Amino acid sequence: MNRRVFLTTTAAGAATFAFPAVLRAQSKDPIRIGFPAPLTGPFSAIAADMKQGAELAVDELNAKGGILGRKVEVLIRDDQLKPQVGAQRTQELIEKEGCQFIVGGLAAHVQMAINEQTKKAKVLFISTSQSDEISAKPDTSPITFHEALNPTITSRVVGKWVMENLGKKWWIVYADYAWGKQNNAVLQDTLQKNGGTLLGATPYPLGSAEFSAHLPKIQAAKPEVLMSVTPGADNIAFLKQARSFGMDKSMKLAQPLLWISYLKEGGPELYSDVYGSINWYWELQDTIPSARKFVEASMKKFNMPPGDYGAYSYSGVLEVARGVELAKSTDSEAVANALRKSPVYDHFKGKQWWRTCDNKAMQDMWIVKGRGPGKTKGEWGLMDMVAKVTADEKNDRTCAEKGFV
Amino acid sequence: MEVSLAAVLPQIFTGLVLGMIFVLLAIGLSLIFGLMTVVNFAHGALYMLGAYCTVFLLGFTRNFWVALLVAPLMVGTFGLLVERFLIRRLYGRGPDDPLLLTFGLSLVLIETAKLIWGKIGLTLDPPRELGGAVNLGFMAFPAYRLFVIAVTVVVLLALWAFLTRTNVGLVIRAGSRDPLMVRALGIDLSRIWLLVFGIGCALAGLAGALAGPMRGAYAEMGVTMVIESFVVVVVGGMGSLLGAVVAGIMMGQVVGITTFFAPKLAEIMVFVVMALVLLVRPSGFFGEAGLME
Which phi-psi region, left, alpha or beta, contains residue B11 (left: φ > 0; alpha: ψ -120 to 50)? Predict the structure, then answer.
């Protein structure tokens, strides 16, 4: 060892001791959050939004000096919208890449596969996708949290609003898989309980681009409302064909959710006066301070406002951070307990809270409709917020109904 | 459910449009197979390419009619290149090798489309003139779909005239009967094969260009279509053009009618019908036995 090396090492050593505790802690290993999302496949547009949301959260945390003085990293991996790939990526994130927490997932079946892995590894998971089972027994766990809305809440709220405002005679078209079937069941139930009439319900295979064979029958039945549960790219194809048959003139078009990514893709003519709900829309920045902060960060980094699923992801990552700060630990169980102990938070849209029995995020949502041509505001001002639906635990199934005694 | 003529008639009409797209795809497949015994698995990808070319040309020219005319020509030209530089090397090697080649080609095309145009699909609209719905008396029917029926009929008539009234058509028909004899008469068949492959691909491109404004353009749009088109070709009889037309229209009706009564069975029904037809007529409606040997 020569003199120069000796001097630099001792100087570095001395410097380490001289630094305040917070800065010294920062040199420790970063806190790693694994984030599986379907970056490729039919939901890739939504996944891109999720990725941006997670990155914004990490930037914000590190700008404040990290969590417990440790830097935060988010590791985003492609689950290809396949359950087995999602399970494998999650396992790798935990075992090989040393992630202490998992946030993310899109599509009900993939997040269930992720959840199986996190339960096995005893790692906290905050899911950002719709599913009824994820927060119910037997699939959920004390370290499984659900940030997104679910089919029960969405379809109950939308169903009730549509009945009161658009009409009580419905035809439902739904994608024949978990999320579609759940929404169809809840919609039918809501319709029945409120004295509406179901003229028919048509399943179709997810990923279909041709709906024309379904449409004459619906047209002949003359429903007041055509309710479509057509996720992803199917949504555009469906609306397009329904409009080409002139159905937009004889009935109202509604769906449980509107996705901003697809409104952008499909354009205002296609989505004009199509009703649905959304968990968050960037124009909320006009009234909600936390939304404004979130939108500004996104405009600065990506030059576009965050979307609905980007917002879930942002909030999910920040909730992990809040839990770790509260628990002063990265132990999943301690973090989960801390979140349940102080369940109220507000990262992007006003007050939200975790229901303590099932770790389900209770949150406000909005009834929205597509703005027609000429009414849009800029590139992303594509929706009108028609009504606000305040968070209410009664909109979800009760703790008992979900298997918690 | 009440079943009246008034309810079924719209369904038959809707099925007709589905059938037209099948016909355009199947007739190209059948033409290529009949003459060259090449099973062109890339046909679905070419259909997709037709839709994307239309999107591209629409953005470029802002004129739907130009796009509809040029997109099939672009796909046809691509087909010429594929025949000349890829498939031609495999003649005389049996039907398996070109099948593998075209299958691989379809994967390459699908991934390339994702790289160029993105993983999320693109939408395109029918031209303003055809944007609305026409009242047919028994239902409101999209004008664009009527247009699709008309275009298909015109193209089929033109193809029929080409094959029966021109000298090149005569050589094509002769070549699919007995290539050796045609060669013995001093006709260069390789140029005919090139042409036929190009025409077949252009028809797939046209199908995609026509389907685009109804279904949008996305990378995997041809994946199920190519399977269903093969079913149509098999049911109609391998290599038979009349068979492709009849079976294509029939399959459109099968999908339409099944969707009406039992939507969940619509996808399977196509294969059930194929199985039934093959039980009764192993070479399809108009097929000749022994073509694959």
Answer: alpha
